[in-house]
Write a structure and sequence with these properties.
Length: about 200
């Protein structure tokens, strides 16, 4: 049984190659996964392969999403102008925080690109809460919100970000609504090594 059969036809399903494929392998993957009805294929080719990304995107079989190639508004504009993407993954840590991420989201929407708001792998509930706040402020993030605090064995916060039935809301309270557990955080500190 394949993933699509296991999760059903309505669930959103995407794949991420992290820029690890060559063009012919990416073409084969797109054709072989067509029946899985992927929402998008993220970064199938290296970030600097804009012409080949455009060729994949123009096949029209699976929308191409860009992650590793997006660090600024200019990157979004460049990918859109070259036809190298149907959408982008916006990561606050790469874009410089909440305000630049919101600016990039606005520009992506203006350019007709789909948006995935995403955390880097295994970010804490604090960073994930920031992503949730950005997503809540965006008019349309049709490729969803990807949070990663669930991968942590120890999330150094007072109360972890709550996800229920696949839904999450910005936590209430001051700032991002998440309080760091200083005691838990100290557990991960490393003592300075004398020079």
């Amino acid at each position: 049984m394949g993933v699509r059969e296991a999760i059903g036809p309505a669930a959103k399903l995407c794949a991420d190659a992290n820029g690890g494929l060559q063009f012919t392998a990416a073409c084969r993957l797109i054709r072989e996964t067509e029946s899985a009805n992927l929402l998008y294929l993220e970064q199938p080719l290296p970030a600097d392969s804009l012409d080949q990304l455009a060729k994949l995107n123009q096949l029209g079989i699976v929308p191409v999403g860009i992650d590793e190639g997006i660090h600024s508004r200019l990157d979004i504009e460049t990918h859109a102008a070259r036809g190298a993407a149907s959408g982008v993954s916006l990561k606050l840590i790469k874009l410089g925080g909440l305000s630049p991420a919101l600016e990039c989201a606005g520009r992506a929407i203006e350019l007709g690109l789909s948006i995935n708001v995403a955390a880097k792998v295994a970010e804490t509930s604090l960073a994930s809460a920031a992503a949730v706040h950005v997503a809540a402020a965006i008019r349309d993030f049709d490729w969803g919100l990807s949070l990663t605090q669930i991968y942590l064995k120890h999330d150094p916060v007072q109360s972890a970000l709550r996800i229920e039935n696949g839904c999450v809301a910005p936590p209430p309270g001051q700032g991002l609504g998440i309080e760091v557990d200083e005691t838990a955080l100290r557990h991960f500190q490393r003592a300075a090594v004398p020079a």
